[in-house]
Design goal:
alpha+beta, CRO Repressor, 2 domains, four-stranded antiparallel beta sheet
């Protein structure tokens, strides 16, 4: 029994290495969700057969061989056909384009404004005005180009998708009446037309309406 487990583990380990080498070298930051599927299934093949006496070493070798062939064929097809690559591994998503929100890409990726702000803060951008372009790569990492003319400022999200953020208003010592009055002075009378409103003590308001936003796919590669 122990010899069988040892041999399965040995074959599974080196078989997995061989299969992954066939896929090609990738840095962790370059791994896509599709590559994770490869790894999960490879691990499952070894795990299922490790402690099952009915599964012999030959079964594991055969399964690893078949899965390795599938991976190799898929990767070869993806490398040769750009349209297949886009469908299977996805495309970069442009969340901010020329300083404007791209609602199509944001909604396609199920990103909320609070999440987007969190992503931007990880890039040391605390205001939407600081970002000229923001692109989510297929591996989930967001790349940005900053607007060099925009000053640094810590901002608060006061309106999200046409809804006032009451808790945030309380944090800065304001109320809804103040918000409506301030927006009215800027010419915005219907808050439901506003997709995004941020405020800072230094720069005051930054308002984005639905009409100003992009609502289309922006191709970056290919």
């Amino acid at each position: 029994m122990y010899i069988g487990i040892l041999s399965k583990l040995f074959i599974g380990f080196f078989g997995t290495i061989i299969v992954m080498r066939a896929v090609g070298k990738k840095a962790l930051s370059e791994i896509t969700p599709y590559d994770i599927i490869y790894t999960i299934i490879l691990g499952g093949i070894v795990q299922e057969g490790l402690y099952d006496d009915k599964v012999h070493v030959g079964h594991i070798v055969f399964a690893l061989f078949i899965w390795g062939v599938v991976i190799y064929l898929v990767e070869t097809l993806v490398q040769r056909r750009d349209n297949v690559a886009r469908k299977m591994k996805g495309e970069p998503s442009v969340f901010i384009y020329k300083g404007e929100l791209n609602l199509y890409e944001i909604h396609q990726n199920h990103i909320e404004m609070e999440q987007l702000r969190s992503i931007l803060r990880e890039q040391n951008c605390f205001s939407l005005s600081q970002v000229e372009y923001a692109v989510m790569e297929t591996n989930g990492i967001v790349s940005i180009i900053k607007n060099p003319d925009s000053p640094d400022a810590f901002t608060y999200l006061l309106v999200d998708d046409g809804v006032p953020e009451i808790n945030t208003l309380q944090t800065i010592g304001k109320d809804e009446k103040w918000l409506y009055d301030q927006l009215g002075e800027l010419g915005y009378t219907d808050i439901k037309e506003l997709v995004y409103v941020e405020w800072s003590e230094e720069n005051q308001f930054l308002v984005k309406t639905y009409a100003e936003c992009y609502n289309q796919h922006v191709a970056v590669d290919g």
